[in-house]
Structures are given as C-alpha cells and as structure tokens.
Amino acid sequence: MPKRSDTTTKTLPLTHDDIAHMVGDLDDAVMTAILRTGANYREVEEAVKWATGDAEDLGKAGHQPNPAAKAVYDILVSDPVFLGVKRER
Description:
mainly alpha
C-alpha cells in the first residue's frame, strides 16, 4: 500500500488511530466525539496545543482556533484522562 505524504495525511479525514497518536489512548466515547467534529489533523493538533498550554505563540499572535479546533479543544479539556496524561509529561 502506498504511503501517504505528510501533507496529504494532514488534510484527509482522521481515523481513530490518527487521533490516538495525537491525544493518547482515550475512552472510545471521547475519540468518537472528536471524530464527529469533522476536524482534520491540523485542527486536532492545534486543539492539543491549546489544551496543553503549548499554544502560547499562537495566542500572542492573536490567533484563535477555528470552530472545529475549538470543538476538539472543548472535548479535550473536559476529559480528566487527557488532562491527567498531559500533566504527567
């Protein structure tokens, strides 16, 4: 099977495995909720940055997450497992 390029991968619809790679092994209900947002790879990646406090540069530049990234962010920050795993790092 041909390998997808990094650029192509970031614009295709996400899979459960794609999300798990970015956010860790969360409950299936959380993963499903993230999938239902319709967010792409970059939007989930951005939401993770905002949720973990790694988006300082984005905030300083006045950048705010788009609706899909914001929906993923809201899901992540309401999940104690995600917050616990990210705080341990």
